[in-house]
Amino acid sequence: MQIAVLTFDGFNELDSFVAAAILNRLRGQGWEAHITAPTPHVTSMNGVTIERQQPLDFAAKADAVIIGSGIKTREIAADPLMLGRIRLDSARQLIGAQCSGTLLLARLGLIGDLPACTDLTTKPWVIEAGVEVLDAPFVAHGNVATAGGCLASQYLAAWIIARLAGVAAAEEALHYVAPVGEKADYVERAMAAVRAFLPVEARARTA
């Protein structure tokens, strides 16, 4: 599985890095999550500059895509040229967005009139875009999921793994990153957020 973690200038490190790290726990099964950006280098909201692993057009080829958030998302959402470069297909791909990434999904027409999740700062902008915002950390409608709050990146990663490799694989990946002494509780809490949004066949599939 090839996964694009869309990462723009001003990105939130927790969104991009945590999701990518959890998804890459399945590297032994052929999974690869790539930091995907429109420019060769992007700088985070806290001044960390990184080199992208894939260009933005990789998102169109990926099996799954996560759109992270950042302090410049409103600028991106108002830039038709940049939006035109983000080519996604919810019929073929799993697509997730976190916090202000939800605003990009709305601008791309991938949410429609369905309710979504986002962070409290972005909430009024998403509502302004015509989307109902839920007071919840995670929601999925078919192949499109949204999450709200920096640490909700684990839910997007768990949802993608559970959908494409099964619940057991998602639980194993979460168990690895969970704090020692809290692993069972951590995994159960995370899976509780996404389990209701998994199709029956994904809940039954094993790693």
Automatic annotation (TrEMBL):
<dbReference type="InterPro" id="IPR029062">
    <property type="entry name" value="Class_I_gatase-like"/>
</dbReference>
<dbReference type="InterPro" id="IPR002818">
    <property type="entry name" value="DJ-1/PfpI"/>
</dbReference>
<feature type="domain" description="DJ-1/PfpI">
    <location>
        <begin position="2"/>
        <end position="158"/>
    </location>
</feature>
<protein>
    <submittedName>
        <fullName>Transcriptional regulator GlxA family with amidase domain</fullName>
    </submittedName>
</protein>
<dbReference type="GO" id="GO:0006355">
    <property type="term" value="P:regulation of DNA-templated transcription"/>
</dbReference>
<dbReference type="InterPro" id="IPR052158">
    <property type="entry name" value="INH-QAR"/>
</dbReference>
<dbReference type="Pfam" id="PF01965">
    <property type="entry name" value="DJ-1_PfpI"/>
</dbReference>
